[in-house]
Amino acid sequence: xxxxxxxxxxxxxxxxxxxxxxxxxxxxxxxxxxxxxxxxxxxxxxxxxxxxxxxxxxxxxxxxxxxxxxxxxxxxxxxxxxxxxxxxxxxxxxxxxxxxxxxxxxxxxxxxxxxxxxxxxxxxxxxxxxxxxxxxxxxxxxxxxxxxxxxxxxxxxxxxxxxxxxxxxxxxxxxxxxxxxxxxxxxxxxxxxxxxxxxxxxxxxxxxxxxxxxxxxxxxxx
Amino acid sequence: xxxxxxxxxxxxxxxxxxxxxxxxxxxxxxxxxxxxxxxxxxxxxxxxxxxxxxxxxxxxxxxxxxxxxxxxxxxxxxxxxxxxxxxxxxxxxxxxxxxxxxxxxxxxxxxxxxxxxxxxxxxxxxxxxxxxxxxxxxxxxxxxxxxxxxxxxxxxxxxxxxxxxxxxxxxxxxxxxxxxxxxxxxxxxxxxxxxxxxxx
Lengths: 222, 200
Description:
The complex is a heterodimer of chains A (222) and B (200). By secondary structure, chain A is an all-alpha fold. Chain A has helices at residues 3-18, 22-40, 44-67, 72-76, 79-85, 90-119, 124-154, 160-185, 192-219. Chain A is elongated. With 200 residues, chain B is α/β, with parallel strands linked by helices. Helices cover 28% and strands 26% of the residues of chain B. In chain B, helix 2 runs parallel beside helix 4 and helix 3 packs across helix 4 (129-142). Chain B is globular and about 45 Å long. Classes of the chains: A mainly alpha (222), B alpha/beta (200). At the A-B interface, helix 1 and helix 5 of A face helix 2 of B.
C-alpha cells in the first residue's frame, strides 16, 4: 500500500469508526433539512422553490462542522510531526487527507440528498440536479476548508475562527451551486454556465488548497 | 555516518533558547542531551528532525543516504505517541509502516519484541501510557531508519520496559545506527553526554 492510500484508508476508517465524519455530518444535514419545512410552513410551492438553497446550505454547514478537526487531531497526537518528516510531500499528504474527508463526510451528504429532496417537495429532476451540483461543488468546500483547518492549527484556534476564515471562500461555491440547481429546475438561464463555473471552482481549489494548507502547516511548525 | 551541528542557534517565541551549539554523533554512538527544564533539549531534537528551523548554524548528516533529507532518515519519538485511539494496536503500527515506507520489517514480530503481541487487536484507546510508549517503540523497529531522536524515551516505561528498551537501543547501535536522546535520567546504555543550558 502506498503512503497516500494508507493515509486515506486510515482517515476514512477513523471517521467511520468514531462517527465524527459521515454520521455527524449527515445527521446535521438531516436536522437542518427536516426543520426547514416546519419553519417555512406548509407551502409546497415555496418549499420546492427554496429546496435547492436549503440543501446547499445544509451541505455547506455540515461540511464545515467536521472540517475543523482535519489537521487538529493529527497535531494534538503528534502524527503531524511524523507526516511532515516523511518522504511524502506535505502537499500530497494534505490532498490525501482532504480527499479522505470528502469521501467520509462529503459523499454521504450527496447520497442522502435524494431522500431529503422528498421532504422539500423536489421532483426527480430537481433532486438529480441538486445532487449533481453537490457532487461537483462539495470538493471545493472541502479543499478550501482545508486551508482554514490548517490555519486553525497554525494559529492554535479552531471553531469560530475556522468558520470566519472559510465561509467567505465558500460563498462563490454556494452561489453557483444554487444557481446551477435553479437553472436546471426552473430556468430560464442555462444549466451549463453556472455548473461549469462550479466545476472550475472545485478544480482551482483542488490545486490551490493543498499548497496553501501545506504552506500554513510548515509555517506554523513549533 | 556522522551527524553534526555547528553553531546551532534556537529561538522560540522571541526567546533565544540556546546559541552556538556544536555537537557530533557517529554511527554506533548514543548522545544523551541533558539540561534543566526549558534548556532546549526537545527543541534540539526538533531542529534535527526538521520540525523547527534553526535561527543560526547548520545541522548535517554525512555518510547517510544521499537521496534522502536528514528528517527522512530520522525517527522522532516525542512526548506524544502519534497513535489513534480508534485504531487497534496492529492497525496503528501497520499504518505507520505503510506511510513511512522504506525498508520494512514484520510488525507482529516487533510487537512481540516490545511485549505487545497479546494486544494486537486491542484499540489503542485502551492502552496504558507505558503500553502506548511500547507501541511507539515498535514503530522504530518496523520501519528502519538510521537516526533515532528520542525525547524522554523511558517516560512511562516500567523497569522491565526500560531493560527491553536498552536492548533495542544497543541492537540499533550495533547495526550502525545513532541515537540522540533528550533525557534527565541515565539512558541505560553507554552514551556520551551533551549538556545544554548550564547545569541541570
